[in-house]
Amino acid sequence: MTKLNKKILIAEDDKSLLSALQEKFTNQGFSVVTALDGEEGLIVAEKEKPDLLLLDIKMPIIDGITMARKLKEVGINVPIIFLTNLDDVKHISDAIEVSKSDYLIKSDWDLDDIVKKVKAKLGQ
Amino acid sequence: MKDKKGAKKETKQLSQNELIKRLEETAWTFVKTVVDTAPTPFLILDPELRVVVANKFFYRTFHVLPKETENQLIYNLGKGQWNIPKLRMLLEEILPKKTYFRNFEVEHSFPKIGKKVMLLNGRQIYEKRGMPKTVITPMILLIIEDVTNLRKSQEKAMLVKRAIKEVRVKLEQQKEIDKMKSELVSLASHQLRTPLTSVKWYSKMLLKGEAGELTQKQKRYLGEVFQGNERMIDLVRNLLNVSRIEMGMFSINPKPTDIGEVLGEVIKEQSPFVEEKKHEVVVETPERLPKISTDPVLMRMVFQNIFGNAVKYTPVRGKITCKIDKKDKKIIIGIKDTGVGIPEKQQNQVFQKLFRGDNVVREHSEGTGLELYITKAMVDALSGKIWFKSKEGEGTTFWVALPFRGPKTRPGQKIIGNPL
User: Fold this and answer.
1) Distance between CA atoms of residues B99 and B88, nearest Å
2) What local confidence, expressed as pLDDT, does residue B318 receive?
3) Which residues of chain B are at the A interface, by a Cβ-Cβ cutoff of 8 Å?
4) What is the pTM of this model?
5) CA distance B267 to B264
6) Helix axis angle, A111-121 relative to A15-27, nearest 10°?
7) Which of A39, B88, B175, B297 lies at a CB distance of 3.0 to 4.6 Å from B417, suitable for a disulfide?
8) Can you identify the CATH homologous superfamily of domain B251-420?
């Protein structure tokens, strides 16, 4: 398990949730970088070149979907998983359109199952 | 030939004056015929504005007689309905100023025909009556067109148009209100879900000993916290679904669906709970089951609720039988349990919001009482039917009938059920 040093970026504006995710993924051997809003997410993503993005949607300054679009524009094409508590069609279809990614409703998912999803996405 | 010769002789014998008179009479008869055949009422007035002649249609339209019309001053006809200052001016100008007027509208309650709207057109004509003096007497032709029905239909059209506009405005307003309500519900559920997620994730980590081993008692207490929070998550999800159902804002996306497969997935998904209660699950499906056009996401929710209830409300070591049949271009799914059943006196409330059986409330404090209400709404939206048979202490069977050809696609702003 210690060999899993893939880097993931978690963008999440709720500090409590971010901290839980960060701890869980770090414990699972991931290298974790974080951002509290979409703008910070963009900067961190360009600098850190993560292998996967775990993005909240509703965030200050830039939302997760816009952030994913902008990253695509600058050629950062890594797998994305949207992790959100918004579940309207508009957001879901936008999210799927931007990255053909998974869209998980936070309150319906256990942390361990989210880790499994991420690992599957990274082919592990 | 004989007749013709005779006629010629007669012509020769006539004086010039008589000939003119005959011609005049012939011409007048011709004019009268034309006048009487015309399907629009009209009057010919002399320079003093007395009626020289009116056509048959005039008499028919106004229900008046020639004797009360001919030689009368137009202003004295009927109840003096044509004695309107503006019309007087127009009529009196025609001959001296060689003018004419078009579509002068008169609305009047006529003695025998009631309220009518008439359009008047007036102009000068020449009439050679009065020959042989060969004086050309100018006359006025006044054509009166009854546009009452036209006006009525125009008014109706206007009213309809206005009503349509009002409805459209109201619909727009309603849409706006619905949109705001829906946004509010989405926002509220988002805000509610965030702290619930926090409780869920941290209590799970604690339960799993990720922050150090817990005592049995600590584990039990924390387990209660976790379960209570799960119920809250269910409640938020269900309330959100109810509000979306009530606003008619959830989408329906039918596609060819293998109902057996959907049911199978739900049974598999719930197998941990089935095993926990040591239930026996039997599935009976015909060998060949056609795919039907329905929304698999909504159907999944229907099965999750019905099968979930069967598992939950059946005492340990129970039996749950799922049976799929096809009949009359319909698929009928029956889910039978050996559970606690629904009290007879409450059976008519099963699909109401917040229904909970008196016999289950005591033992199962969880449950939102919204599942069956949502389930019925889903089945209705899928053009299906749902019914049940239940006996307290023996068990319940729920049936769902779905047509092969399900509902049309309905784009909505919201999805009900897990999107992926």
Assistant:
1) 13
2) 93
3) 182, 186, 189-190, 193-198, 200-202, 204-205, 210, 233, 236-237, 240, 251, 412-415, 418-420
4) 0.57
5) 5
6) 60
7) B297
8) Histidine kinase-like ATPase, C-terminal domain (3.30.565.10)
A1: confidence class by pLDDT, cuts 50, 70, 90: very low
Interchain proximity B415–A90, CB inside 8 Å? no
Ranges of each domain in chain B: 16-146, 148-249, 251-420
Across the interface, do A23 and B186 touch by the CB < 8 Å criterion? no
Contact B412 A89 (CB under 8 A): yes
Distance CA B398, CA B376 (A): 11
- Structure tokens given for A10: 């978690």
Between A and B, how many CB-CB pairs are < 8 A? 72
pLDDT of residue B1: 44
Of B258, B247, B73, the closest CA to residue B176 belongs to: B247
Please report, rounded to a whole number, the percentage of residues in chain B having pLDDT higher than 70.
90
Is B118 a residue whose pLDDT tops 70? yes
Calculate what percentage of chain A has a pLDDT beyond 90: 40
Contact: B201, A17; criterion CB under 8 Å: yes
How confident is the model over B365-388, as pLDDT tens digits?
667 788 888 899 889 888 999 999
Do β-strands B395-403 and B385-391 pair in parallel, antiparallel, or remain unpaired?
antiparallel
**Candidates 3.40.640.10, 1.20.1530.20, 3.20.20.100, 3.40.50.2300; correct CATH number of A7-121?**
3.40.50.2300
Cβ separation of A87 and B236 shorter than 8 Å? no
ipTM of the complex: 0.87
Domain B148-249 belongs to what topology?
Helix Hairpins (1.10.287)
Q: Residue A24: its chain B contacts at CB < 8 A?
A: 201, 205
Cα B170 to chain centroid distance, Å, stands at 13
Whether B415 sits inside 8 A of A20 (CB atoms) is no
Chain A interface mutation, best of B184, B185, B190, highest count of A Cβ atoms under 10 Å: B190
Residues B102 and B69: beta-carbon distance below 8 Å? no
Within B208-255, residue ranges assigned H as helices are: 216-246
Q: What is the mean pLDDT of chain A?
A: 86
Nearest CB neighbour to A105, from listed B201, B205, B418? B418
CATH pick for B16-146 out of 3.20.20.60, 1.10.569.10, 3.40.50.12780, 3.30.450.20:
3.30.450.20
Binary contact (A17, B194; C-beta < 8 A): yes
Asked if B414 lies within 8 A of A88 by C-beta distance, the reply is yes
Q: Of the spans A104-118, B132-146, B197-211, which averages the highest pLDDT?
A: B197-211
End-to-end Cα, chain B, rounded Å = 104
pLDDT per position as a tens digit, B60-92: 888 889 998 999 999 988 888 888 889 899 999
Of residues B193, B251, B418, nearest to A85 (C-beta): B193
Contacts of A59 in chain B (CB under 8 A): none
